[in-house]
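Contributing new complexes? Match this layout with aspartic acid.
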Amino acid sequence: MKELSRRGFLQTAAVAAAAGALKPSTSLGHSEPTGRAQGPLAIASANGLPATQKAIDLMRQGADTLDAAIAGVNIVEEDPNDHSVGYGGLPNEDGVVELDSCVMHGPSAGAGAVAALRNIKTPSRVARTVMQRTDHVLLVGEGALRFARAHGFEETQLLTDEARRIWLKWKESHSDRDDWITPTDATGPNQRSQRLSDFTYTYGTINCCTRNTDGDLSGVTTTSGLRYKIPGRVGDSPIIGAGLFVDNEIGAAGSTGRGEAVIKICGAHTVVEAMRAGMSPQQACLHALKRIADQTKDQRLLRKDGRPNFDVKFYAVSKDGRYGAAAIWSGAKFAINTGDKSRHEDCAFLFERA
Ligand code: ASP
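Output block (do not edit by hand):
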């Protein structure tokens, strides 16, 4: 990865000057050239290789952009081996899996979401049903589950044996001041302090945004959220404007990583608005990440050098088929399919990890 060149910076600055209020900092991080697709495109978080492939295959057969994106992420939602999404996701602190998802359909400007939904493997489909069959945007908890039942979604125990074992190990080892005995193979008590040190936040999600040859856009984000969260905790993933935002005239964007930070800056909306102001998808992602870095004031979330001790990633596609992704920290990948085979590309980044 190259440091953003002076020429690149001047171009960014010129775009931002034209954008008026959207003023980038003097160091918008490290970037790679933004990619572009003529035909259908699907971009996703790194766990989205099969999802982007599926979405492209379906769009090629004429599927709607949102149906394609949802069918893609369903693969990950239904995969018991992905512990960050859907079935097999890691549970809350009580050992209960609670799922969050939202969808946006560009052509109809539709939106739907569910949060803290239990027992249903595919919250993204329930989110789409909220969009299609209610006058609301977001249903949560018990109400979301009853709504899903009414629409015939099958209920399943989402906590797999493996996820339960992982949760139990956490439960038994996160404190030495309770009655749960630490297993001998645990890394030691008090994982909370480890969790608050650099890069050890344990999140995971899939975001997938799609664009077809007509330039229509859609997106979906789905997750089991922060593992061992306080029951009822909801992150950015089901929040329209935070974990996902689509404006069919401009672009689509989504996020993964520390949801609390994304919510506070209305992350995906910030990315799309930066594209509206003229930034490329990748520069728009970096712009939103810079906002997060600037807005992180709490000492427990900062490293000694004042940089965030967590990561966030944004993924974006513009109406004209440009795409890009960026992370706070170097080393991240994203999944992309521009009509052929899905592949990983490097995310741009704000800060180089030592
Ligand atoms: N953003 C998700 C959340 O905060 C988790 C993640 O993407 O890792 O719930």
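Reviewers usually confirm one structural detail per submission. For this one: Confidence is low (pLDDT under 50) at residues 1-21, 23-27, 188-201.
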